[in-house]
Amino acid sequence: MRIVIVANPHKADAIAASRQVEKLLAARAEVRVLVEPDAAALAAAAPELIVVLGGDGTVLRIAQAVQNLDARVVGINFGKLGYLTSYQLDEFIAHADEILAGHVPVSARLMLEGTSHRNIVREDGTVDPGTAKVSRAVYCHSALNDIVINAGDPFRMIELQVYVNGQAAARFSGDGLVISTSSGSTGYNLSAGGPLITPEVHAMVLTPICAHSLSFRPVVVSDGATIIVQPRRVNEGTRVSFDGLNPQPMTGQDALVIRRAQRPLQLVEHPKMSHWQRLASKLLWAQTSWHSD
């Protein structure tokens, strides 16, 4: 088995632990340690398993980099929340043989792909999703948690038109929009008033950020839907970000097309920590006390 170890370079404890993990796994597999690898470096290493030591942010960066790879990702938590990093260091060591053998749960986490296009809106304001397939793309990025449009400087309300599968769904003013996966439902989506969704539900959530209307509430759509966001009024600083990364400007000439990415992220789960236990322990959801055997 080919394994790549990635540690957050800004966390001394994660770097120190990566040496321990490397020594542990070297007797079992072909192991490489990469510092802040990009997609090209990971593709060259061709790993079957990527061990990430850091917080959720480190996993989010790796998720973007492995979009074209058939590799499992397991996280060892050295962050604050650790919602995507299922293992503590001692737990990873205890379950290492099971992880390498593929005897622990692996969830296929929906990834989103956001592409900015120009000139795909008709004169009557409607959109043909098929037009985006032949128009010129300005940029394209993926996200595991969410794609977020923020109003930005000078912080006036922006106005957005949202289409779902070519049909006009909503036009609203506010501070922006969160398009979230179920994995990201515990993040910005939740803070903005969106629902919690279990990871096995492959869906997208559209959650407005401080909408200037009491009638626009979060909506859940199929992961097979095509969402197009057409700006009607934006600020100079209006930006689109992908898991908080790769911020891109959004202008009145651009339309953001959001679809399910071709590959999901294969995320290794903890065999003794259910989704509900994680909600309780990480987010204090329902203030329930859970105890694993």
Largest sheet properties: 6 strands, mixed
Name the CATH superfamily assignment of the largest domain: Probable inorganic polyphosphate/atp-NAD kinase, domain 2
What is the domain tally?
A: 2
Biggest sheet, strands in spatial order? 2-1-3-4-18-5
Number of helices: 6
CATH class division of the largest domain = Mainly Beta
Count the E strands.
18
Alpha carbon gyration radius? 20 Å
First CA to last CA: what distance? 30 Å
Beta-strand percent range: 35-45%
Q: What is the second-level CATH architecture of the largest domain?
A: Sandwich
What is the typical, i.e. mean, pLDDT? 89
Task: Give the proportion of residues in helices.
Answer: 10-25%
Estimated structural class = alpha+beta
Order of helices and strands: EHEHEHEHEEEEEEEHEEEEEEEH
Fill in the CATH topology of the largest domain. Tumour Suppressor Smad4
Which overall shape is indicated by the principal axes computed on the Cα atoms?
elongated
Give unreliable regions as ranges.
none
Q: Could you characterize what this model shows?
A:
With 293 residues, the protein is of the alpha+beta class. 20% of the residues lie in helices and 35% in strands. The protein has two domains: 2-109 and 264-287, 3-Layer(aba) Sandwich (Rossmann fold); 112-260, Probable inorganic polyphosphate/atp-NAD kinase, domain 2 (Tumour Suppressor Smad4, Sandwich). The chain has six helices and 18 strands. The strands form three sheets. A six-stranded mixed β-sheet has the order 2-1-3-4-18-5, with helices on both faces. It has a six-stranded antiparallel β-sheet with strand order 7-6-17-14-9-10. A six-stranded antiparallel β-sheet has the order 13-12-11-8-15-16, with no helix packed on it. Strand 9 (158-164) and strand 10 (167-174) form a beta hairpin. It is elongated.
